[in-house]
Design goal:
This protein has one domain: TIM Barrel, CATH 3.20.20. The N and C termini lie far apart (42 Å). Helix 3 packs across helix 5 and helix 4 crosses helix 5. A hairpin with a 6-residue loop joins strand 1 and strand 2. The protein is globular, with a radius of gyration of 18 Å. The chain contains 17 helices and ten strands. The protein is 45% helix and 13% strand.
Length: 342
């Protein structure tokens, strides 16, 4: 816990320029030199590591390279101060949560644990929570987010079908601590979710260099989140890659992976989720994260200039324009045929 009033006073200035935001990050970021720095998570009073370990990718690591490798990397991440862990009910049909549960069961108190609910209705939401608690071998989730608010009717469904009602009951029962939502499709849908009659603790969204030029969450949604004290969690740092493992931005030769991480962490995010699938991913995350300092305006502009032409029509961020990155559960939930990726 931290002095919430100090954090909120700075974070809620929605008029701050990007340079001001970078200075704010440096002022709010705490670094004891023993691992990754931390930042405040919106107005919750919590602090989280500036990088978050992505659950889908670590689950894929367990499947491809064996559970000892995946669990070993999770343990190393914790030891290095990368203690914010991401997951979701539907990742690898529950395997990602089961694997993470085995990794953290004896060090649960060191991890700020986030997983996601994939349902919109009351009964399905409670069923998801029951499954996640069992798989993760814990009695509570620190942050529970409504997953993939990607379709225009999702914001209304969460309220009309009883999903939020179930989440609030679970929160009152001590099974979850904070409630947020995620989505990667369109800033307009995020703004509609924020406009619903509930004060979200967090919102997770794409934050990367290319996002600046196409359906920009960092331009349209982040300022609103800061104004409302909502913790911003970034994702799609490398813009994903349905056909490879290196990320669409690096694969296109637009920027290196480390430049992408540097850029995203220089935005006013509480934490940035990274896909850690192989040893290289963890090593580069720790290299960038240790002692992190935001990039100055000149460097940010240089990085943007290098991607502007490719970014402007969305070809790099296919998760915004196609269903390649939508989870199969959510495609079926909305009556679509499941679209294969890759």
């Amino acid at each position: 816990m931290t002095d919430e009033s100090t954090d909120c006073e700075i974070l809620e200035d929605g008029e701050a320029t990007e340079a001001d935001a970078a200075e704010t990050l440096l002022a709010l970021q705490q670094d004891n030199g023993q691992g990754l720095p931390t930042r405040p998570l919106g107005t919750t009073g919590e602090r989280v590591s500036i990088l978050c370990l992505g659950g889908w990718h670590i689950g894929q690591c367990g499947k491809d390279d064996g559970e000892p490798e995946a669990i070993g990397m999770m343990h190393e991440a914790i030891d290095e101060g990368l203690t914010f862990f991401d997951n979701a009910w539907d990742y690898h049909d529950g395997y990602a949560e089961e694997l993470m549960g085995r990794a953290i069961v004896d060090r649960r108190e060191k991890v700020f644990l986030m997983t996601k609910n994939c349902e919109r209705d009351y009964d399905g939401t409670l069923s998801n929570l029951h499954d996640s608690l069992k798989r993760l071998q814990t009695d509570h989730i620190d942050l529970w987010q409504f997953h993939e608010i990607n379709y225009d009717n999702d914001p209304l469904w969460v309220f009309e079908q009883g999903g939020l009602k179930a989440a609030l009951e679970a929160q009152a029962a001590g099974k979850i601590r904070y409630i947020g939502f995620t989505g990667h499709k369109d800033p307009r849908i995020h703004l509609e979710m924020i406009g619903q009659p509930y004060d979200w603790d967090t919102a997770q969204m794409p934050i990367n260099i290319c996002d600046y030029f196409f359906r920009s969450f960092q331009k349209q949604v982040v300022p609103v989140c800061l104004e409302h004290g909502i913790g911003v969690i970034g994702m799609k740092t490398l813009a994903g890659s349905p056909g490879g493992t290196n990320g669409a931005i690096p694969e296109a030769g637009l920027a290196t992976a480390e430049e992408c991480i540097h850029y995203s962490l220089s935005q006013p995010v509480s934490s940035q989720v990274l896909g850690i699938r192989i040893r290289r991913d963890l090593d580069q995350a720790l290299r960038v994260g240790r002692g992190f300092r935001p990039l100055d305006e000149a460097r940010l502009e240089t990085l943007r200039a290098g991607v502007q032409e490719a970014a402007g029509d969305g070809r790099v961020e296919l998760f915004k324009t196609t269903q390649h990155f939508d989870g199969p559960h959510h495609q079926k939930q909305h009556g679509f045929a499941v679209e294969e990726t890759g």
